[in-house]
Structure prediction request, 317 residues.
Amino acid sequence: MSSAPGASSAPGASSTPGGGALLVVGDVVTDVVARHRGPLAVGTDTAASIRRLPGGAGANAACWAAYSGCRDVRLLGRVGADAAEWHERELAAHGVRPLLVVDEEAPTGTVICLVDAGAAAERTFLTDSGASLRLGPGDWEDALLDGVARMHLSGYLLFSEPSRALVVRAVAAARARGVPVSLDPASAGFLTGLGVDRFLPLVDGVDLLLPSRDEACLLTGLPDAADAAAKLSRQVPLVVVTQGADGALVARSGAVSARVPAPPAVPRDSTGAGDAFTGSFLAALLAGAGPQEAAAQGCRAGALAVARVGGRPPGPP
Prediction:
């Protein structure tokens, strides 16, 4: 496991000190973003603008947390030797302390992001998780929680057996130390494959769930996001459902307690918008904000994210 020197706050971050370190455990992948306009021309060429960028839901959220003012953000993830140094540099440049396990057998995960450059800038992912889902309990040390005020888990960890075992061990260690745990379910498509009945027991011990509207509806079987948020909050103490341009819902104790609007944005690429919300929301919580205020900050970050290409915040000059 290798790590960079102590993280520093990123450009544009708030000067308000956080209430302790944020440990993110999750995926680090390489995104290949292809922006095209209109439908793909099957069997022939479609003109596109293509960029290779650092990504991964866990890594993106960590970068947005640092950008949003959290002064000590750490990321535990697994990458292949093929791109380990590049990802370490990119994370450190965004103010994140990389704690990356280098896998000598599997390549770094790669995601092909097909982005329709039309009005909604909607994206479709082709995902090869590679080394990221080989993160396992052997990569965990309880000392990773030293100085940590909150641990956040990327839901992509739930989609492989080794990573699920890591989640169980990490949550148990966090609970033993009184460290609160949040989780982003990550992918409606992968959730369908895993099964709702398998997912819900895995979030036992999590105090904050951050699903998208589609994920919340899938997990509850309810068509309305507010009803889904309310139902989930009977199992998890705090549930915050992201709804894209419709903002976010905050739910507790079986009821929606706040509906937070999203600021207007001209979308270029929706990749990483949910990760931006998550990272900024967690940074605000650690700085002492309540859930509604934190959700408003998350919505602002999401609006900034969709106006950019790729899943990371603006970097250093």
In short: The domain at 25-37+49-306 is CATH 3.40.1190.20 (UDP-N-acetylmuramoyl-L-alanine:D-glutamate ligase). The two ends are 29 Å apart (CA to CA). The chain has nine helices and 14 strands.
